[in-house]
Amino acid sequence: MTLRQLVLVPVVALTTGACFATRTDVQVLQHDLEVMRAESASSDSALRAQMSRLSDALASVSDSLRAASGRLGRFQGDVQGSLYALQQQLIQVQELTGQSQRRIQQLRADLEQRSGAGTLPAPATPGAPAGAPADPSAGAGATPGPNQLYQLSLDQLRRGSNGAARAGFEELVRLYPTADVAADAQFYIGETYAAEGNMSAADSAYAVVVRTYPQSSRAPTALYKNALSMRKAGRTREAREALETLVRNYPRSDEAELAREQLRTLR
Questions:
Q1: Chain segment 79-94, per-residue pLDDT in tens
Q2: Neighbours of 66 (CB within 10 A)
Q3: How many Cβ atoms are within 10 Å of 161's Cβ, its own excluded?
Q4: Domain positions in the chain
Q5: Which residue of 37, 45, 101, 218 sits 20 to 30 Å from the alpha carbon of 22, by its own alpha carbon?
């Protein structure tokens, strides 16, 4: 063997070994790629299955939400319809109540006028002994009863005749201070002054309602109007005291709730 052949033998061996090594590596790599493809395919299949289940779940939830939304819409419609019906009934009841109160007042006035029940006793004949019957002629100028006076004065107020209405209400309070309409009459005295812009006199009249007829339904209204007037005039401390008194003494009245709102904003 020549020197050249001796040199070529290891080179060929190395080249052949390199080729074998490269082919083996390629085979390993191909195997790994096939494994990765299989794993990827399996993973994709699992992911697609999971996505499919998630899509089905979302579709189910969406259907449930649409159904719930439909039920909610129908419920809201039913509630709104019921509320509207209740409001209409409440309006009718209020109208009937107002009409009934006016009718009752008119009937009372008519009854007093026909029976003379509200007529004040005529003065005794001068010089007559005690217990002697009154002079029949003294009853010629009979005074209307409290309900008659109230109805007549209220009619004047509705016509805008504040002065005439006030005179009638004042006469009622003077002659019949314990009548069941006396508190209303005193309250409307304040209203006539307020309509004329005389708030000082109106406040005084409202104060009389609270002081003289504290158990009447007009008392919390009068107190609330008085408090509003004081607040408008800048008498904040007095207004607060009046509102607090209203909440304390008439906690269940509608005016008490209004007073609470005023107290939240009063500074």
A1: 555 655 554 554 445 4
A2: 10
A3: 15
A4: 153-265
A5: 37
